[in-house]
Amino acid sequence: MNARRKFRREGEERRRQDLIDATLDSVAEHGLEGATVRTIALRAGVTAGLIRHYFPGKEDLLQEAYAALMSRMTEQAKAALAMEDASPRQRLAAFVTANLNAPIIDQRVFSLWATFIGRAGADPTLARAHREGYLGFRNEVETVVAEVLAAEQRKPDAAELRHHAIAINAIIDGLWIEGCLAGEMFSPGELAAIGIKAVEAELGLAQERGEDQ
Amino acid sequence: MNARRKFRREGEERRRQDLIDATLDSVAEHGLEGATVRTIALRAGVTAGLIRHYFPGKEDLLQEAYAALMSRMTEQAKAALAMEDASPRQRLAAFVTANLNAPIIDQRVFSLWATFIGRAGADPTLARAHREGYLGFRNEVETVVAEVLAAEQRKPDAAELRHHAIAINAIIDGLWIEGCLAGEMFSPGELAAIGIKAVEAELGLAQERGEDQ
DNA sequence: AGGCTATTTATACACTTGCACAACAACGCC
DNA sequence: GGCGTTGTTGTGCAAGTGTATAAATAGCCT
Predict the structure, then answer these.
(1) Distance, CA of B66 to CA of B115 (rounded, Å)
(2) Which residue is nearest to nucleotide D6 (CA to C1')?
């Protein structure tokens, strides 16, 4: 009767990844409260005890899951800036477009982000992780902005540059949220179009083919 | 030994408010997971059983707490638009300023917002509540934008107006997040100044040369 | 003052939680 | 093939969870 469950031994890295993915899935679906070791283990296709074999405790698993999430998000976002042979302005537009379409616009990722970041006020570790991610992102923006303005023969000072980066960052973040939470209210590409126009207005760039007054 | 704890009978409305406030405090501090009936009751200065006397269950208390939070947030935000005797442009600037300073820029409120909104993907009730709040907010923005542009003798069509409202909403939301999460990185009034400039750029308004703060 | 009643406390209960640990079995190595 | 290592399971446990319910008492009405 007492037939023990069959199992396969997986590589350590694979198991850890599976557990982290299962954690993110659980958090996205039921929130931090619903992400119990048993739920997570079930989703990963193992039993609860195994978690403690790979992580010192549940809290550590959550930490690593959040780190993995952040890393994936920023990685995808920055990838859009990698185009070498484009003009600064094109690269900026591509950056905005990439951030306002799938897979970065995604309800599940947003749920995860919101759930974790909600604890940043109480958890200093989390707060610092966010701070660093945010500054890194803003720095990328500032670099491109500098290039765009340089290509237009404009010499902004540091404060001006910083303000532009903050504003553009806000535009992208704000539209990202709107898209994640109410994506079906926008036609495909609409958010990106709004974002590009707003960013170019912020930088005082002439609209390319403007019928807009 | 078995001295029963002294207590005072409070009015129903008062007790419900206290319990809701205690709930929001608990959620802000320890997240949804840490907001147990006992924690909440302790904070409200009562014992756990009393919660069930005022609310059918814990879930209902959380629902009402979220509703109360949203109501306070939108109420404060809209109040800034109430100035009757100002020009549309001044009212828009005041709106932006109000949304980018205390008490709307507040880490605790942000934590609450993020914690609750993180469950919008899974909880349709929550998602609808947010949707309505968001559309109401955007509508307010759209109305002021229409007035501002009208005062400048411009006649935007509906689509243009909608895009402006979406963009401005994004600017405010994005800067709100930055301010809540990293408020000490900005000097007082800086976010508001950035916001006003970005909004005016989005609308194509000539920058005022002067002492706006 | 003395009851009446609804508010409030206190206790109980079934269930879930994270974690500890012993038994087991999959897989590499000889 | 047998064997040892260790990844994996299953069970147990104390603490904590939401809820149910009985007992107590504060405050109003007369």
Answers:
(1) 10
(2) A9
Question: Residue A163's closest CA among B100, B190, B188?
Answer: B190
The answer to whether B190 touches A191, Cβ cutoff 8 Å, is no
Q: What is the pLDDT of residues A104-146, one digit of tens each?
A: 999 999 999 999 999 988 888 888 888 888 888 899 999 999 9
* pLDDT at B204 (0 to 100): 94
Is residue B107 within 8 A of residue A107, CB to CB? The reply is: no
Question: What span, in angstroms and rounded, lies between the C-alpha atoms of A48 and A177?
Answer: 34
Q: Rounded mean pLDDT of chain A?
A: 91
From the CA of B61 to the C1' of C7: give the distance in Å.
18
The ipTM of this complex is 0.89
Contacts of B117 in chain A (CB under 8 A): 114, 181
- Domains parsed from chain B with CATH numbers: 9-55 (1.10.10.60), 65-203 (1.10.357.10)
Residue type, A191: L
Q: B191-213: buried (b, 16+ CB within 10 Å) or exposed (e) per residue?
A: bbbbbbbbbbbbbebeeeeeeee
